[in-house]
Amino acid sequence: MKVPDLYVGKRLFVGDGAQPKCLGIGPLETRGSAFIEGPVVIGDPSPFPAVYATLMVGPSINPEAIPPTPVIPGVVPTCTPVNHSPYSVAIDGDCAIFDHLDVNGDISNAGNVNAGGDIKAVGEVMSRCGAHVLSAKKNFDIPHPSKEGWRLRHTCPEGPSNDVYFRGRVTGKTAIQLPLYWKDFVDIQSITVNLTPIGAHQDVIVKRIDEDMIHLQSKGGMPIDCFYHVYAERKDGEKLISEYEGSTPADYPGNNDEYSVSGYHYDTKEN
Fold it and tell me: What is the distance between the alpha carbons of residues 179 and 226, in angstroms, rounded to a whole number?
């Protein structure tokens, strides 16, 4: 049966007639609300050969619906559609997802994304309108603090072990206090120390290393004044296997769950 426009002045229920409490009961009924038992398909049904979810939304296939391509600051659409919007869902406002989100396509967002759980991507993760790619070298790029019209870019160090470090200066003391959490965080046997005397040769050496202290000794007991740089390898996980046989990161012989790996050559962006 075909009908013209159908006006529902109060609420719409489709299915077994259940009335969700969240829509109100009696005098607290929410006018204009609806409950559909589902599953529901909106738009092009071809991407869904079976029931994938309670709500399945495809691109619009209505030839009468030819909206302008949405303009989102910082987002450049990959194509200009002929007869429908490039987006299956457009949301103007906050979006709450309480469980799992699977998207087979692009997500364009002009606001903030707040996640209480994990965010996983098979492809690239980009920010700054594509200017920063997570798989690339780990950089920051800021206006130069002392040269007008210049910029300053630094990059993170990379190495064959999962290292952490701290640095500083010791003056008039014979020990360097290790961070309190290091005894439970790093392999104490992996600690290395670099010392640079200041002002005079003091023949400073590392006498011994405890779980909370690096003990120093100078020639003749002269006062110590030096810079220090301390490295150690994390022990909260397996050791990094820096070289292994294979063609993709999936061939890594260790636990890939401990690492964030893009699978791309950093410079050529090729697998």
Answer: 18
Tokens of 221: 């007991």
Q: Do strands 55-57 and 151-155 pair parallel, antiparallel, or not at all (unpaired)? A: unpaired
Tens-digit pLDDT profile for residues 161-186: 989 999 999 999 999 999 999 999 99
Distance, in Å, from the CA atom of 90 to the CA atom of 108, rounded to the nearest integer, reads 9
The closest alpha carbon to 173, from 207, 211, 138, 147, belongs to: 207
Helix (H) or strand (E) run with residue 183 in it: helix 182-185
Which structure tokens are listed for 96?
Answer: 């709450």
Cβ 45 vs Cβ 58: under 8 Å? yes
Do 195 and 174 touch, CB atoms closer than 8 A? no
Torsion 124-130-136-142 (CA) sign: negative
Nearest to 211 by CA among 191, 197, 193, 225: 191
CB 107 within 8 A of CB 115: no
- State the pTM of this model: 0.52
Is residue 193 packed enough to be buried (19+ CB in 10 Å), middle (13-18) or exposed (0-12)?
Answer: middle
Q: 46-69: string of b/e by CB count within 10 Å (b at 16+)?
A: eeeeeeeeeebbbbbeeeeeeeee
